[in-house]
Amino acid sequence: MSNLQPGNQIVGRRRIILGAVFLMATSSIGPAFLTQTTVFTEQFLASFGFAILASIIIDIGAQLNIWRVLVVTGKRGQDVTNMVFPGLGSLIAVLIVIGGLAFNIGNVAGGGLGMNVMFGVSAETGAVITAILAIIIFLLKDAGKVMDIVVVILGVVMISMVGYVMFTTSPPVGEAVVKSFIPDEFRSLILPIVTLVGGTVGGYITFAGGHRLIDAGVTGKEHVSLVSKAASYGILTTGVMRVFLFLAVLGVVTAGYKLDASNPAASVFQIALGDVGYKIFGIVIWAAALTSVIGSAYTSVSFLRSFHKKFAEYSKYIIIGFIAFSTLVFVFVGRPVVILVIVGSLNGLILPLTLGAVLIASRKKSIVGDYHHPTWLLAFGILAVIITLIAGWFSLEGIAALWND
After folding, report:
1. Scanning 33, 168, 203, 300, which has the fewest C-beta atoms within 10 Å of its C-beta?
2. Exposed (0-12), middle (13-18) or buried (19+): which is 338, by Cβ within 10 Å?
3. Domains held by the chain: number
């Protein structure tokens, strides 16, 4: 049953739902998201729309299954999978924490880059400032409420700014629509698809909103319909941002401009709007970085709670340590652009394992009780597992090639 009560808590519940949607969406809309979308659009042009469309379909299938089962059981991802097979949830937790930590290194790197663009400070100094701001949020008494508000505001700011840039580049929308269904080639789009899936629902990200709902007490099968809408809205919010950025980049490259390989996303904004565009990029990537630092740290640490009660008791301080450690790693390790692309691909390899376990759990009455998980949704999830398994296999070659470049 839900811990939420009717009456004056309805507004609070709406905030929590909206916060969960944007926590998931902004967790995926990080520096890696901006870099990957820009790099792949420049490489595949309008045909990249097919990868975006395919990834959105897979993402919805994955997230609907996971959020529904988690909310019905009132248990976090690692606990559900441990009930499916003892030890599996613990393994997934370790993989997700490692993946989340790797992602967070890229996130703080993006925060440093954003601060550098906006104020001219070094990337390292900017990363430290971004990390401190994230830490302050978790130190506040009403950290959960503040987190919900921050991710919603920054999410709207990012989407609005990228949407404005898109309109200024006059992209070939008609061509993009056609090639989203009939691309020039399919095989070469496998790596982009698994990278997008990994960056959107891979690893910790697909659990971000679900765990937030559980922590806020939104549990029980009476909330299935509401949670299904929230899960879909989260993916669609990410999809809107992805399409806006895709079209913005497409408009620039089809006009004959060459993007700066050292900072491809920034060059799109600068080409479109000059120095003002470059500053807008700084705001967008910083907002993307800060929200992703928050989402990565919060969700990754939530996977540690099952190991020992001390992890739950001191979760706030573990989150702070998680952010601090990620920042220190970035300060002493380079290659941010390569890391941002590769981590997205690696994260996608975790999804078949996590989603597969949740699908099995959905058919066990000892886990979900009298809740009936729709057969069509189960089939949707199985399809997502198969696709990501195949795509994950092929992505290994692509990861190796990217690292060697």
Report:
1. 168
2. middle
3. 1
